[in-house]
Write a structure and sequence with these properties.
By secondary structure, the chain is an alpha/beta fold. It is 36% helix and 19% strand. The model has no long low-confidence stretch (mean pLDDT 93). The structure holds 6-O-phosphono-beta-D-glucopyranose (BG6).
């Protein structure tokens, strides 16, 4: 268990304070992931959760809520532990601006400590929209929930979700507040994409195989295209999404981390310091866009019908789609375009990164006309997890001609052939690593601000622009930029 297998033993005991305990994230990801960890015996002994939310629920009602959502979405189909699992939860009702409510959280933690006769370590999970962070930090400071209960005994850590803030300045203000309460080693900034098996596999692929790393630069790579398409629309998340938009929701974090893993230098070691500093270095080289880039290398889109979504402003300019072409100001990647494209309500669910190599200069291709025979490596995250290598072979027949073929590594097929090992969910990894104290798959303060610097600049240049409207269930807005990316990237046969 654990992404890198470096967590020898779990701390014991621990209390998790889950803020936003009835929200979308808790229901869909956290409760199922906690149940999977529980069944796999990967939670600390005497693990306890103080669940906090606005909803008026009794403890029993919340435990029913836990059982329901763990049953619906957990990976395991073993439901025999649900009742025991639900008894790990106590419920505290309140709002984030209610000081007394944070006093009740403290009491619930103290009650648990008294019950087990030990001072438990404390893990706070802010599973709430970023607009509440300021208030929550103030409440934690005022209630002194940041302190371990006895000096030197146990630890206190905090998990914060993305987007952390709304722009570079806001992120800095939040960082300042957070750093008064917690040291960097106590802060776990989540980007669950870093914990995805498919993304961790990019590291393995790049740095454990001699075949590619020497070619992984501007001399051999022509372009990189990162896509994240979702068929579902904003749905019931209007209140959260309209204040955030697609670029802050998945661009500032998931997609820039995909780019960082593709473009970063080799880390000196497989640990948090080495990996996080390599990722931060590359994010710092993102070229800052200019106003004139809007419409050409920066496209902002909104699907038709978004304005009718519940809790969305009727004149909202919030983007549900973006396409960006950017460069890294780094000698290794000079002149190599990186395309990033994301949209909601798209025709298909698709997540992948395609690296296009330059065509061989002296190709034995059997052609006299201008021709191109580039290699490609494609890392697919969804709908299937694959790595595809496009290469060229001789077409059968009398004439010497070339034919493209693919070598495909399919993670799930490979696993079933190896006896059915399973890929753990990203949120299981996130929770497990935070309990273990391993920050490798979490974002550092330096990564965070580098990503914000670029994204804040994009937000600034497109601020006044109305988004281009696209139809639901389409390929997003029509643009020369995406035509150009497609021309580069199509694995034509
Ligand atoms: C979340 C975003 O961080 O990532 C969602 O808030 C998005 O809007 C989701 O749908 C995508 O994550 P995954 O793991 O489902 O690909």
């Amino acid at each position: 268990m654990g992404p890198m297998g470096r967590c020898e033993s779990l701390p014991t005991p621990t209390s998790l304070v889950l803020l936003g305990a009835t929200g979308d994230l808790a229901r869909k990801k956290l409760l199922p992931a906690l149940y999977d960890l529980y069944v796999a015996r990967a939670l600390p002994e005497r693990f306890h959760v103080v669940a906090f939310s606005r909803d008026a629920l009794s403890e029993n009602e919340y435990r029913t809520f836990v059982r329901t959502h763990a049953t619906e979405r957990a990976r395991t189909k073993d439901h025999t532990h649900l009742d025991d699992f639900a008894t790990c939860f106590t419920y505290v009702q309140g709002s984030f601006d209610d000081r007394a409510a944070f006093g009740r959280i403290k009491e619930a933690l103290e009650t648990q400590d008294t019950r087990i006769g030990i001072c438990a370590s404390k893990l706070f999970y802010l599973a709430v929209p970023p607009s509440f962070y300021d208030t929550i930090f103030e409440q934690i400071a005022h209630t002194r929930l940041d302190l371990p209960c006895t000096m030197g005994e146990g630890w206190v850590r905090i998990l914060v979700e993305k987007p952390f803030g709304s722009d570079l300045d806001h992120a800095r203000t939040l960082e300042d507040k957070l750093s008064v309460l917690f040291k960097e080693e106590q802060i776990y900034r989540i980007d669950h994409y870093l914990a995805k098996d498919a993304l961790q596999n990019i590291l393995a692929f790049r740095f454990s195989n001699v075949l590619f790393e020497d070619q992984w630069n501007k001399d051999f790579v022509e372009a990189v295209y990162i896509r994240l398409f979702e068929q579902f629309d904003v749905g019931t998340r209007g209140a959260f999404f309209d204040g955030v938009g697609a670029l802050r929701d998945v661009g500032q974090n998931h997609m820039l981390q995909m780019l960082a893993l593709i473009a970063m230098e080799r880390p000196d070691a497989l640990n948090a310091d080495a990996l996080r500093s390599r990722r931060a270095e590359v994010l710092h080289t993102l070229r800052i866009p200019k106003k004139e880039d809007v419409g050409t290398t920066i496209i902002k889109g909104q699907y038709r019908g978004y304005l009718d979504t519940k809790d969305v402003a009727t004149d909202s300019k919030t983007e549900t789609y973006f396409a960006l072409k950017t460069y890294l100001d780094d000698p290794r990647w000079e002149g190599v375009p990186f395309y990033l494209e994301h949209g909601k309500a798209m025709r298909e669910n698709l997540g992948d990164i395609t690296v296009r190599f330059r065509s061989a200069t002296h190709c034995v291709c059997g052609e006299t006309e201008a021709h191109e025979h580039p290699n490609f490596v494609r890392f697919s995250l969804s709908p299937e997890q694959k790595i595809t290598l496009r290469f060229w072979v001789r077409k059968p027949g009398a004439k010497y001609e070339l034919l493209p073929e693919d070598l495909v590594f399919d993670r799930h097929k490979a696993l079933s052939m190896r006896g059915g090992a399973v890929v753990t969910d990203a949120y299981e990894e996130v929770l497990f690593d935070a309990l273990c104290g391993d920050q490798t798959l979490f974002v550092s303060s330096a990564e965070q601000s580098a990503a914000w610097e670029y994204v804040t600049a994009v937000l600034g240049v497109w601020h006044d622009q109305a988004p281009v409207v696209y139809d639901k269930n389409s390929e997003g807005p029509d643009s020369d930029l995406i035509r150009e990316a497609h021309e580069q990237m199509t694995l034509s046969s």
